[in-house]
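sorry for the late reply, my laptop died twice this morning and i had to redo everyting from scratch. anyway the thing you sent over, i finally got around to it. pasting the sequence first so we're on the same page, its 325 residues, then the predicted structure underneath. double check i copied it right bc i was rushing
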Amino acid sequence: MKKIRETEYVYAAARVHSVDGALMGRDKYIRLAAAPGDEAFSRMLGEFGYDVSEGVFPSLDKKTEGAYAFISEIAPEKKLFYALRYPYDCNNLKAAIKCEFVRGFDFSALYSPCGTVGEKKVADAVHNRDFSVFPINMANAATEAINEYSETSDPQLIDLILDCACLADMLSVAREYKDEVVSDYVKNRIDITNLLTALRVIRMGKDCKFFDSASSDGGYIKKKALSDAVSQGEEELFTVAKKSAFGKGLPQDGFLSFSETEHIFDGAFAEICEKYKHSVFGSASLVWYLCAIENEVKNIRIIIAGRASGQSAEKIIERIRESYV
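ok and here's the structure:
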């Protein structure tokens, strides 16, 4: 695959920076969290650029879908950004497989249009056990996931097997196009996923063999280092994490709760993506924009969940992820 010249992205970067002013900052999140009622919340979300004509939740899906459509329109090579679309394919595939085994779930309601494989093709792939429409690692893993579930009835195995395959496919795209930015993005996603998996494995009382089966190769942090840390315990894992790109926000005396640790890692990931923002060469600003949109939608979902559970606006704002603007 021929490497795309960085200068080919100059026009696309200019297009991105012509629309990034519409992204939400913390002040808008505060206003949403404090909105007096659902109607006011919906109206305010519409004022912030979301199409709420079909409801609040559909507007979030449309926002993300629109961002990917925009990038596909302006990018010199849209298939490079399949690396960022693959997690949606993965979630769609996981949902379709689970709906195959569990009655009462509607795959159409769970499907996201942000992936690279259409809804009918996903459903047909699972029904016919022919996963050739998916990238190679997810295609192979889908059969393995179905076999494992058939033997164990453990839906967690579907997630673990396909999540690892998805990260491998993402990294494969970055390597195919020799794109350093997308490669950096994927490697950091592998690291954050592996670190959180390692912490979860330790707190579940599982061993390093379980971690090895549930984690991915290819990140900046060597998988063996994490596996060894799992064997030695949480203190050693904390030492590894503290030295990584995700260690800056960690306290000095050990991990907090899992959700608090995830929040800290998300903040570190936001800082990593922030460095892409002002580049006019290569894919950097386009990757940043997609990350910013996904982060914004995630924060709105956090606000909606917090409001639904009766949390105060102040408490909700404490839980949102760092803004990318």
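The chain is about 70% helix and 0% strand.
thats about all i looked at so far, will dig more tmrw
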